[in-house]
Structures are given as structure tokens and as C-alpha cells.
Model the fold of this input.
Amino acid sequence: MPAFRPGLWPTLTVLFALPVLLMLGTWQVKRLEWKSELIASMEARSTAPPTALPSNTALEPTLDYRHVEVQATLQSEPALRFGLTRLQGAPAHNVLQLATLADGRHLVVDRGAVSADTALPPTPEGERTLDGYVRWIGDDERQWPVPPNEPDANRWYWYDRAALEDVFGVQLLPVVLVLAPTSTSLQPAAPVPQPLAIDLPNNHLGYAITWYGLAVSLVVIYGVYGHQRGKGNA
Done:
């Protein structure tokens, strides 16, 4: 039976690399558990019965995707075109407008989508009941590959709170209210609210499989190399 002689440096390399690969795979498994719990909590908040928007001191990132109901008056101008989407197969934007709550606070409302080549619809007057989902923007930053906002051209792609405050001329709450498809108080003049999508990436299972796969491959290559080297020295 040929001896197993992988050599000093291949052995030292495996002894160093194998624990690192296993550690990275285990780390990704833990990240998978954390991300899955986070997404589950967001889904639970979004599907729960609507609650009132908390006071300023209780506003925090854990409110993201919370289902809420508020009494508010929409301001007709300015109306901002936000993001890129599709509506009945045609290019579309969402519409952002300023809303003043019954208690005097201000926040941005995402009313839904309108076709890119369609004039913005009129804003219903008076106080309305708005049903929607909270999106936290207190620490929002532009992420690659999201393009920069173009306020002069009325093209907005991310929630730049400071820039939105400049445009609306008021201090804003650190949240955006995205209207739910069930919010009908602004119909029929409203844009079309879109179903809520929790688009938080969760690719950690694939990453874990990759790291563990590399660890297995390393052991197999090390074993084959050691046996082949042993045959050569027999």
C-alpha cells in the first residue's frame, strides 16, 4: 500500500486554510439564521392589523414595514416622481407627496405608481385616512447601483431625507408611508398603490455551501495529492 506523503508545505497550507473555510461557512449559516428571522419579523409587522404611528420618541428602525393607519392631509405640490417600475406593462414612477398628520407632524407619502408619460393626477382635498407601511429613512444612504437623485429634473431614486426636507420646506419624520393596495380613501384620483415587496437579499445559504464546498474540495485534493506523491516515492 503506497504511503501518504503530501509534503510539509501542502500540509501546512491545508492546516491553515481548512479552519478558515469552515469558519466562513459557519459564519454564513449564522447570518442565514439572522436574516431569515429579520425577514420573518418584517413580514409579521406588515401583515399585522394596522396600528397608529408612534410618537416621535418611539420612532426607530424596528418600525420598518410596520402596518399603520394615520389621519393626514396631502399637499398637492410638489409631487415627486420616485423610482422606476412598471404599470400594466408600461414604464412608471411612484408619486411622493408631503402629508401633514392630524397632530401637525409631517411625513412623505408614497401614493403608488403612475405611467411615466401620464400627468400627475390631482390631489384629493381634506383630511383622509391613510393605510400603509412604514419605511424607515432615518439613516438612509444611496446604495450602488442606485443612481443619484436629480431634484431639478424631478427624478428621485432614493430617500435622501435632507434633500426631501429642502424640497418640501418642512422637517420630516424619519419614515415614509407607502400606501397599501387596500388604502382606498384617495381613490379614484390616486396613483395605483403596489403590493409591498420585502426585497431584503438573503443569499447566505449559497455562500455557506460555497465555503463548505471549498473546504471539502481542499481535503479531497490534499488526499489525492498525498497518495499520488506517496506512489512516486515508493
Summary: The beta strands are 67-74, 80-87, 90-101, 106-115, 127-136, 175-179. Residues 8-41+202-232 form one domain.
